[in-house]
Amino acid sequence: MKYILSLIILISCYDIHAQAGMDKMKQYYFVMLSKGPHRDQDSITADKIQAAHMANIQRLAKDGKLIVAGPFMDDSNWRGIFIFDAKDQKEVESILQTDLAISSGRLNYEVHPWLTERGTCFK
After folding, report:
1. CB-based contacts of 99, cutoff 8 Å, min separation 6
2. What average pLDDT does the structure give for the chain?
């Protein structure tokens, strides 16, 4: 009985500490951008898609939705990343469709929920 009581106290203390730790955490959405299936546009069209992509990034950053954006500097399949501050993955998916580079198929993406401690990475 003493063992069971000790175990119950230990589990409840662990749960309290786990919950307290979660209060310090914030979920964001990490997006990995990769080459899409439609990259055969002529240079003028590709430049227009890129300009629209950059304008969309600026708009989303100004709106506070896009926290991090940037390309990879090598010529691999991975093209860049986004980190979004959004209520859920559905919102992120909707936001991503506003990017002409994605909706045109020039870029593909994967969305992953990402957790970090508040104040360690972003303000």
Report:
1. 52, 53, 56, 57, 107
2. 86
